[in-house]
């Protein structure tokens, strides 16, 4: 039996790399902290740099579900059961609930394949595990938009084996806006999923002067907002006014982003005991 009041699990996912799904995941971390909702962190990422995922380098205590040499061995093995057993740790994680899981490029298909092989949905439902929300991030590129649409459809196709509560698409404007894609067939197909309950939210580009420094040094937005202009001056040697302005812009962008998330219901949820309709949204007017 799950712990009463356990928050649900968010899976942040993208099919190709570089879409901003780790940025989305770290904004969810910031949101949980601001709302006082405890959360655990995990990553499933084929990137083997330093034997840690990018998510694991942004935050401490990230549970690494798939990384480095072990994952390489699984992919090259002729034993299909090895891959299934390898991803059982992912299964234990979603069964426990209360996680933000950052899923790297090209790993998503393996996780869905594991869920089907293990008939995971049957166990998750029987154990009444906390619900899972899926958050897919895409940049304004036609193929990336189609990949995001494909992931959403795949999640519907595989829902029996990996039950998803709510689905979100984050339109990441880091490389430009989506206005030019209004008549793009892939974008129209993606937006059509709103009729199936999929929520679409825009994440604007952060124009802060310190953004490139944060990315280069792998400093999360959460941790950057705890810094002062003096901290930035000492660490990066930048002018105190540049630091002050950069922090001001970063806070405004973070506030705007989380407000956008909240408007579409992308907020931490404490599960009150019922899988469907029995959840309490924190900060959304519920008592």
SS-derived structural category = alpha/beta
The helix content is 40-55%
Rg, rounded, reads 19 Å
Largest sheet: 7 strands, parallel
**Largest sheet, spatial ordering of strands:** 3-2-4-1-5-6-7
Shape, per Cα inertia axes: globular
Describe this structure in words.
The structure is a single chain. This protein has 287 residues and is α/β, with parallel strands linked by helices. 45% of the residues lie in helices and 17% in strands. The protein contains 13 helices and nine strands. The protein has helices spanning 21-35, 54-58, 68-76, 80-86, 88-96, 108-117, 120-126, 142-157, 185-191, 211-217, 221-224, 229-236, 240-263, and strands at 9-13, 40-44, 62-66, 99-103, 132-139, 166-172, 199-203, 269-274, 278-281. It has a seven-stranded parallel beta sheet with strand order 3-2-4-1-5-6-7, with helices on both faces. Strands 8-9 form a two-stranded antiparallel sheet. α9 links the parallel β6 (166-172) and β7. α8 (142-157) packs parallel to α9 (185-191). It is globular, with a radius of gyration of 19 Å. The chain starts with 8 loop residues before the first strand and ends in a 6-residue tail after the last strand. Residues 272-287 have low confidence and may be disordered.
Topology:
Blueprint: E1 9-13, H1 21-35, E2 40-44, H2 54-58, E3 62-66, H3 68-76, H4 80-86, H5 88-96, E4 99-103, H6 108-117, H7 120-126, E5 132-139, H8 142-157, E6 166-172, H9 185-191, E7 199-203, H10 211-217, H11 221-224, H12 229-236, H13 240-263, E8 269-274, E9 278-281
Parallel strand pairs: 1-4, 1-5, 2-3, 2-4, 5-6, 6-7
Antiparallel strand pairs: 8-9
Helix pairs in contact: 8-9, 12-13
């Amino acid at each position: 039996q799950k712990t009463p009041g356990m928050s649900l699990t968010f899976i942040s996912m993208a099919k190709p790399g570089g879409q901003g799904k780790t940025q989305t995941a770290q904004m969810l971390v910031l949101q949980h902290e601001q709302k006082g909702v405890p959360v655990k962190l995990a990553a499933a990422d084929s990137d083997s740099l330093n034997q840690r995922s990018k998510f694991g380098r942004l935050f401490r205590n990230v549970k690494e579900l798939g990384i480095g040499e072990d994952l390489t061995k699984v992919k090259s093995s002729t034993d299909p059961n090895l891959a299934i057993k390898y991803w059982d740790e992912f299964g234990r994680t979603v069964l426990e609930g209360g996680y933000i899981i950052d899923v790297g490029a090209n790993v998503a298909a393996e996780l869905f394949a594991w869920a089907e092989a293990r008939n995971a949905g049957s166990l998750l439902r029987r154990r009444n595990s906390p619900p899972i929300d899926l958050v897919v991030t895409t940049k304004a590129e036609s193929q990336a938009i189609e990949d995001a649409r494909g992931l959403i459809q795949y999640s519907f196709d595989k829902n029996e084996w990996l039950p998803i509560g709510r689905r979100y698409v984050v339109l990441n404007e880091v490389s430009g806006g989506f206005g030019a894609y209004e008549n793009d067939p892939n974008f129209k197909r993606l937006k059509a999923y709103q009729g199936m309950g999929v929520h679409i939210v825009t994440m604007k580009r952060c124009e802060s002067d310190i953004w490139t420094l944060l990315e280069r040094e792998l400093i999360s937005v959460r941790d950057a907002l705890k810094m002062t202009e003096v901290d930035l001056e000492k660490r990066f040697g930048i002018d105190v006014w540049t630091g002050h302005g950069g922090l001001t812009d970063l806070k405004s962008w973070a506030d705007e982003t989380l407000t956008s998330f909240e408007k579409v219901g992308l907020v931490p949820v404490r599960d009150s005991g019922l899988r469907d309709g029995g959840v309490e949204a924190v900060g959304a007017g519920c008592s």
